[in-house]
Design brief:
Helices cover 32% and strands 33% of the residues. By secondary structure, it is an alpha+beta fold. It has a 7-stranded mixed sheet, with helices on both faces. It is globular. The structure holds coenzyme A (COA). Coenzyme A binds next to helix 3, strand 4, helix 6 and helix 7.
Length: 200
Amino acid sequence: MFMRMFRQNEILQGDEVKNFPFRGGVMPITRAKTRRLAKIYENCFREEPWCEVFASGEAVTWLREMICYPGNISLGWRVYLGKIVGAIFAFPLVFKEDVAKFLPQEIDASKVIYIADIFVKKSYRKQGIASALQKQCLDIAKEKGFTHALARTNLESKMRPILAENEYALIQTQEVISNKQVNGKIVPLADVRGIFLRTL
Ligand SMILES: CC(C)(COP(=O)(O)OP(=O)(O)OC[C@H]1O[C@@H](n2cnc3c(N)ncnc32)[C@H](O)[C@@H]1OP(=O)(O)O)[C@@H](O)C(=O)NCCC(=O)NCCS
């Protein structure tokens, strides 16, 4: 009984999380957690509209790269007495040149946090986990002195309404061609990504 209470206190942060319908909380991502998260990541981005194709080890390498960027904010959502079921990875926009070029000139790229990836295991969705991760990430970013947050996502992504609800404005669109797995075949397909910006 004591152990349960201790673990609960350990993972819950603040009243908002305590009142959250699905009990759990945020935790920092360590290298040790990236292997499990990489499996969730691959499953999430194999879904439409992404249909991504992953080489062996590619996802875990990418997650580990992101937690090495100076100033990164990488948070996982751990369910009460359970495992991590989702995460957000963000880092300063200066490390993402192909997206930084879309930033209006008057904004200092070193003060912009880039939301690189956010994903939640399918069976845990629609309970506010991505929204809570996003909010926690932006709160930390603001505390660290970032003035803006920028995200790039497929316009068909389930993330788009969450960005709209969180005061992000669409500032640019970009057509991207990538290899996708469709009906068991890998084919190059175009889709439209939106660049979304908000002040902190
Ligand atoms: C996008 C993604 C991260 C959203 O995760 P999520 O945890 O389901 O997100 P939330 O629960 O915060 O919000 C999703 C919806 O559930 C609703 N919701 C939240 N809590 C709810 C609750 N208790 N009951 C019912 N609905 C709820 C939200 O209002 C939101 O509705 P909307 O789509 O109409 O805006 C998830 O779908 C995912 O991993 N997709 C694949 C990867 C991906 O596309 N990532 C984004 C790349 S940028």
